[in-house]
Write a structure and sequence with these properties.
Layout lengths: L6 E6 L1 H18 L5 E7 L3 H10 L5 E8 L12 E4 L9 E9 L3 H11 L5 E9 L12 E5 L5 E2 L15 E4 L4
Parallel strand pairs: 2-3, 2-5, 5-6, 6-7
Antiparallel strand pairs: 1-9, 3-4, 8-9
Helix pairs in contact: 1-2
The chain binds inosinic acid.
């Protein structure tokens, strides 16, 4: 495993992440059997999670991506959100599962749920790699979560700090800024 001086400790190893994703993928495969499932990934953080999850899901899935702007290179500053890159295709009549890297305040997801709900999907659900419920400001229905985490800034497996660390195969807590 690569050692990175800016990191305090590993929270979840590659093996723990893989095992948990397999469990959640099994639940999703069960729940959506016979449905028209589309995974909607929120760029860029969810890319690593979405591909790992999709590979473990045993029913047919479609995938699409969108990106939101709300965190212009700042570590954490919830607030204004807008769609920077929209989905390539419509979602009417489909069973949409939004794939997130982390649900923190929930403000991003609240906006996304409202926006996508207006496009006539059959259903919309949420699956997230990490959930930090302690900091929640907007109540959003998170159906599937891999891990609940404490109130610390984390990186790896898609999550970044100023666009770095996304490619770490584990999830780690950053050292506090001095
Ligand atoms: P929310 O609107 O506060 O729920 O923000 C969720 C978004 O904030 C995530 O999709 C991440 O891009 C970003 N974010 C929140 N916490 C962290 C963290 O600990 N590490 C990296 N990104 C984070």
């Amino acid at each position: 495993m690569t050692t990175v001086p800016e990191l305090e400790r590993v929270l979840f190893t590659k093996q723990q992440i893989a095992a948990r994703i397999k469990e959640v993928a099994a639940e999703i495969s069960d729940r959506y059997a016979g449905k028209d499932l589309k995974l909607v990934g929120v760029l860029k953080g969810s890319v690593f999670f979405l591909t790992a999850l999709a590979r473990e899901i045993t029913i047919p899935v479609k995938i699409d991506f969108l990106s939101l702007s709300s965190f212009t290179n700042m570590a954490r500053s919830p607030g204004y959100v807008r769609i920077a890159k929209d989905l390539d295709e419509g979602i009417e009549g489909e069973d949409v599962l939004i794939v997130e890297d982390i649900v923190d305040t929930g403000l991003t997801l609240r906006y996304l749920l409202q926006t996508l709900a207006g496009r006539g999907p059959n259903s919309i659900g949420i699956v997230t790699l990490l959930d930090r419920t302690e900091r929640r400001l907007a109540q959003v229905p998170v159906e599937y979560r891999c891990f609940e985490i404490p109130d610390r800034f984390v990186v790896g497996f898609g999550l970044d700090y100023k666009q770095h660390y996304r490619n770490l195969e584990y999830i780690a807590v950053m050292k506090p800024e001095k």
